[in-house]
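Contributing new records

If you add data, match the layout below exactly. Sequence lines come first and carry their own label; structure lines follow with theirs. Keep one chain per record. Anything else will be rejected by the validation script.
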Amino acid sequence: MVRIRLRRMGLKKQPSYRVVITDQRSSRDGRFIEIVGYHNPRTEPPTDEIDEARVLYWLSQGAQPTDAVNRILVRTGTMARYERLRKGEELQALVAEAAAARAASAPVSPKTRYPSPAPGKSRKKAKAAAAAQTE
C-alpha cells in the first residue's frame, strides 16, 4: 500500500520533516517515490509547505496519509479540497485556490522557536568554562 508520511531530516535534536510518498514496507528514512512537501515544527507557527496538485493526485490514486500527515493536510486545507475533488470539482481550480490561500496566509519570515546557540554559548562550553574557573 502506498502511504503519505513524514521522513525525518535535520540535525540531532533539530528535526524537520519531508512529506513523502512511499511504500508502507520501506523504513521511515528509506526509499520513497516522491517528495511532495515539508514540515518544520521548530518555527512559530509550524511551517507546512505542500504540493497540493501532487498530494491530490496521490490521494485520488489510493494513497493513505499517516495520522501526523493527515493533521498537516487538514491544517493546510488539503483534505477539504480533496473531498471537493471527489464530489466533482475541477483539479485546476482547487490547486489555484490552494496557491492563493498559501500566498495570503504565509508569514514572510517565520521565527524559529528554538534557535541554535550563539558561538561559544552552548551548554557544553558553558559547563567547561565553569569547570575551568573553579580549578
